[in-house]
Amino acid sequence: MNSKLAAGTVVLMMLLSGCSGGTDAEGFVQLPGEVTWNGEPVQDGMIIFRGSDPSERNVAAPITDGKFVVKIQPGKKTVEVTAMREVPGKFGVGPSGEQVPLTEAYIPAKYNSESELTTEIVVPGTDTLQFSLQEM
């Protein structure tokens, strides 16, 4: 009886942990990641992974305080990062006539609409994703 309980506990732990480094039944793996802009965490943004094979699903995840978690298929990916920030001292008019801060997209096109950023997800092998974006 104790051996059945122990075996069941191991199976449950593997299911809860995502089978520790392997892909799920659909071929996806869940990975954490970080994104910085000029050395600072991207506070509020979005990261998109586009596969090189058209049959692969594109996936996206929100970035909060520089961190994200994405469920993704292994392989080579083009990475797109977008983020908005308030423009200090600039305001517009909201839908009810109130004053609202203006925002701007500050990540250059080379990291999103014309992305040159790539990564390769290898399973097992890739444990985290790290993107250090620079202005130049």
Supply database-style keywords:
136 residues, mainly beta, 1 helix
What would your notes on this structure say?
With about 140 residues, the protein is mostly beta strands. Helices cover about 10% and strands about 50% of the residues. It contains one helix and nine strands. The strands form two sheets. Strands 3, 4, 6, 7 and 8 form a five-stranded antiparallel sheet that branches. Strands 1, 2, 5 and 9 form a four-stranded mixed sheet that branches. About 10% of the residues have low confidence.
Task: Give the low-confidence spans.
Answer: 5-20
Number of strands: 9
Structural class: mainly beta
Helix share, percent: 10-25%
Overall shape:
elongated
Q: What is the string of helix and strand elements?
A: HEEEEEEEEE
Q: What count of helical segments does DSSP give?
A: 1
**Main sheet attributes: strand count, strand direction, barrel closure:** 5 strands, antiparallel
What would the average pLDDT be, to the nearest integer?
A: 87
Strand content: over 45%
The first-to-last residue Cα distance is: 64 Å
Radius of gyration: 20 Å
